[in-house]
Amino acid sequence: MILVIGATGFLGGEVCNILATEGNAVRAMVRSTSDKLKTARLEQKDIELCVGDLRDPSSFPSALKGVETIIATASAMPFSYVAGENNVETVDQQSLIKLIDSAHRSGVKHFIYTSFSGNIDESFPLRNAKRAVEQHLIYCGMEYTILRPGYFMEAWMSSMVGFDIENGKVQLCGDGMNPVSYISLKDVAAFAVKSVENLHARNRTLELGGPSAISQLDAVKIFEEVTGQHIEVSIVPSDALRSNMNQATDPMEQSFAGLMLCLSKGDPIDMSQMTDMFGMNLTSVRNFASGILKSAIH
Fold this sequence. Notes:
The chain is an alpha/beta fold. It has one domain: Rossmann fold, CATH 3.40.50. Helices cover 44% and strands 17% of the residues. It is built from 12 helices and 12 strands. The strands form 3 sheets. A 7-stranded parallel sheet has the order 3-2-1-4-5-6-10, with helices on both faces. The longest helix has 19 residues. The model has no long low-confidence stretch (mean pLDDT 93).
């Protein structure tokens, strides 16, 4: 049995889709307040649902019963964040560490954890929480896989962060010239699923990026070529991003500013060996841009 934590999120949902399609026995831990449409979709794929909450360790034993592997993708950021209740400290750090300990006691053999790129190296709440969980997992006694994907195309090439292709306007982090190995969420999900059986993933920290490292400005040019439209570019200087991070008082605002600052510095990841070990054909930014255009047309 494979337990997915974060199954109603974008990444966890894609992990469930792949696992179910491949015929795996899958259980999803969902909250009683989870979106009913999302949980219904999971059930339609013959995924077993178990009501639980990362913030409530008493709900772990029933979710962990008979589980050999856990894939954990849950995070309070950005959509589940509630200050003082469902936040970086409680969900992304304390709760996941308690889940790791409970899983070890329950006899879970393999824990696959989704962190983010080692190039994200500034000190801010989400980054510090993820690194703390990584260290706890490494020394807990279970076999582990730590996935460190770079910047998701689906998030960082969207209007949510100022990459507004629909309206022809893009806001870049820093001067936009440093290389970034943007990766598709679907490829991250595929790596997570392949890590269940692939021995190359055992007791390893895997840095994950797309097929090539391109600058933010290169990405804009690709979207211009694919869409055939001019895109207006504005820049938020790195100094301003650092100031935003240092002055923010809310952990989510600090973390978001920190992620933008690290993006401005670049996030190159060499995937030449990783694609061979996992047999992956990675999504390029051009592939991604073309997919968005096709979706818009249809």
